[in-house]
Design brief:
heterodimer; A: 360 residues; alpha+beta; Rossmann fold; OB fold (Dihydrolipoamide Acetyltransferase, E2P); 2 domains; six-stranded mixed beta sheet; five-stranded antiparallel beta sheet; 8 helices; 20 strands; elongated; disordered C terminus; B: 275 residues; mainly alpha; MetI-like fold; 79% helix; 0% strand; globular
């Protein structure tokens, strides 16, 4: 296992930048997830690490060695593909042995190593099976064993769980994470599934339009999103358009004066986390902001309730409240009061209320 | 209309369909059945009813040098042409199905062309070409095995390109990426992963190519030389001055060879899937 570095890596097809100036430093044994919507450049980035896509600019290093121009078969990376890509004409054991054979490992050592790898993924009893005799989850584990058996420097996972059903996905997530920790694998995973990314990663890289928007831990991304895209993509946010009128005073499009923490004045976008907003029948004390509004929509989600409240013709917020026995449960059309402290909001100067800042 | 009459109608329709299908099957198989029957007749003049049955006409094939030599030449020609056709067709199919370049469609059609052009036209064109080339270079081409092979390769190539392209279309290239990720270079990837996956298509291509070459008559007529006739031509020439059940027995041998080739193919790949 080794450290992986991307230095301002870009891939351009004509005028289109599939990835632009992607820089990333993955420590030895770290699990980094590339997260973003489809077409954001995360898969291109992964394929540049594996060697299937040659970067237009920049360099890729593994363990301090520059591998930018090396073909895939000379890089020591193990990849699990979205479709698993098991060789259909080979048995499970032969699939797992393939990487060892290519590395000219003596025949006598291949058997035990294959067995060990299959035992790691708890499939040691299925070595003689063919791909078509395996379930989706088993195929996924064979693909993992095949990628691990030759001790790659870096493990690459390309949406490895997207073909599994929801329940299995939960289990495999934890299984992969445990295995990764035990073997101290430097790992890069690509996914568009936010929850998957949050549960598995040490660190996350949020990408959009080929560019890295933010790198950080789960808490970094959630509490201090770098821009309105991250605020909307990681977790949920309601957005209010407007401007910072004076230091620490935000004026929404609908004319609300909202207290916040921001010094630079000018057009800006405010994002609010739904679970930090309080909804009550009467005005509440102890909050920095409190506004009357009308309930427009209520979603009953079981443990949680979403309450959409209109504050003015232009401004709407969503509050998420726990479903308690004695809890406040308004109906559509009710007059309510919403309150929040300055900590619930993030301000993005210069950002506009638009497609990137999707309301809930 | 009651429910019963509706069901009766459906049953009637089903029987009509079966009957019609049977009729068509008979229409296709009747010549094969009769020629096989005829080959076991005892008498020399094919008349009905037969006077008795014997295997003497199969023995007659072996006594006839033209048939034996024709069969050997056709086999030889089929094998050489199929080998060359595969050597050309496999890379061509790989290129056509994977590389995007200007004129790809045109090249694809060009490679399938020998299948569409009438054999007589193809034969005439090749004959004239061989004559001109022989005059220009002094090399013995007309009526040589080499000359025949050049023609037969043309007949084999379309089958190879078509069938191998078809099997490549169903091949998931992620498998190649997986192999390369595991440390296999391009050649090893092709040998260990791609080729085994498209092998059914390659076998089918070889068999169809061989059968196309083995049964070719029209084009070969222009390319054979003295003392060098293929089996279909030997049969045609024999028919010109004699009709006896030898023709039938030699046809049965030919049918059997083609049938064996088809059965072998079917073991690797369902023929109904590739044609």
């Amino acid at each position: 296992m080794a450290r992986l570095q991307l230095n301002q890596v870009s891939k351009r097809y004509g005028d289109f930048w599939a990835a632009r100036d992607v820089s990333l430093d993955v420590a030895d044994g770290e699990f980094v997830v590339l997260l973003g919507p489809s077409g954001c450049g995360k898969t291109t980035t992964l394929r540049m690490i594996a060697g299937f896509v040659e970067p237009t600019e920049g360099s890729v290093q593994i363990g301090g060695t520059d591998i930018t121009r090396l073909p895939p078969w000379k890089r020591n990376t193990g990849m699990v593909f979205q479709s698993y890509a098991l060789f259909p004409h080979l048995t499970v054991a032969q699939n797992v042995a393939f990487g060892l054979e290519m590395r000219k490992v003596p025949q006598a050592e291949i058997g035990p190593k294959v067995e060990e790898a299959l035992r790691l993924v708890r499939l040691d009893h299925l070595g003689g099976r063919l791909q078509r005799q395996l379930s989706g989850g088993q195929q996924q584990r064979v693909a993992l064993a095949r990628a691990l058996v030759f001790r790659p420097d870096v493990l690459l996972l390309d949406e490895p769980l997207s073909n599994l059903d929801a329940k299995l996905r939960q289990e495999v997530r934890i299984e992969i994470r445990k295995l990764q920790r035990t073997l101290n694998l430097t790992t890069v995973m690509v996914t568009h599934d936010q929850e998957e990314a949050l549960t598995m990663a040490d660190r996350l890289v949020v990408m959009n339009d080929g560019m890295v928007r933010q790198v950080g831990t789960q808490r970094d991304l959630y509490e201090r999103p770098a821009d309105d895209f991250v605020a909307g993509f990681v977790g949920r946010s309601s957005f209010l358009g407007g401007a910072v009128e004076a230091p620490n005073l935000f004026r929404s499009r609908g004319g609300l004066a909202i207290r916040c923490i921001e010094d630079s004045t000018g057009p800006a976008l405010m994002s609010l986390r739904p679970e930090r907003i309080t909804v009550a029948a009467q005005q509440q004390s102890g909050f920095d902001n409190g506004f009357p509004g009308e309930v427009e929509f209520v979603s009953y989600l079981g443990g949680l309730i979403d309450i959409h409240v209109r504050l003015s013709a232009e401004d709407q917020v969503v509050a998420q409240v726990p479903n308690r026995e004695d809890g406040f449960m308004p109906r559509v059309g009710d007059k309510v009061h919403v309150s929040w402290t300055t900590g619930a909001a993030s301000i993005f100067p210069g950002a506009e209320y638009g497609p990137d800042a999707q309301d809930l | 209309m009651t429910a019963w009459s509706f069901i009766d109608q459906r049953r009637l329709g089903r029987w009509a369909l079966k009957g019609f299908a049977g009729l068509v099957m008979f229409y296709i198989l009747a010549p094969l059945i009769f020629v096989t029957w005829l080959s076991f007749y005892q008498q020399e003049i094919p008349s009905f009813p037969p006077e008795g049955y014997s295997l003497r006409w199969y023995g007659a094939i072996l006594k006839n040098d033209r048939f034996v030599n024709g069969l050997l030449l056709s086999l030889q020609l089929g094998l050489i042409s199929t080998a060359i056709g595969l050597a050309v067709g496999l890379p061509a199919a790989l290129c056509l199905s994977r590389v995007r370049f200007v004129g790809r469609e045109a090249l694809n059609n060009l490679l399938l062309l020998p299948l569409i052009i009438p054999g007589v036209v193809l034969g005439t064109a090749l004959y004239v070409f061989h004559v001109e080339t022989e005059i220009a270079t002094g090399l013995p081409i007309i009526g040589s095995l080499g000359g025949l092979v050049t023609g037969h390769v043309l007949v084999v190539i379309p089958w190879c390109v078509r069938l191998i392209t078809a099997s490549l279309a169903g091949f998931d290239r992620t498998l190649e990426e997986a192999a390369q990720n595991l440390g296999a270079d391009r050649w090893t990837t092709f040998r260990r992963i791609t080729l085994p996956s498209i092998l059914p298509g390659v076998v089918a291509a070889a068999m169809f190519g061989f059968v196309a070459s083995f049964g070719n008559l029209e084009m070969s007529l222009f390319l054979v030389g003295p003392g060098r006739t293929t089996l279909p031509i030997a049969i045609l020439q024999y028919l010109e001055w004699k009709i006896d059940p030898t023709i039938a027995s030699v046809s049965v041998v030919q049918i059997a060879l083609v049938a064996i080739a088809m059965l072998i193919t079917d073991r690797f790949v369902k023929i109904s899937r590739v044609v």
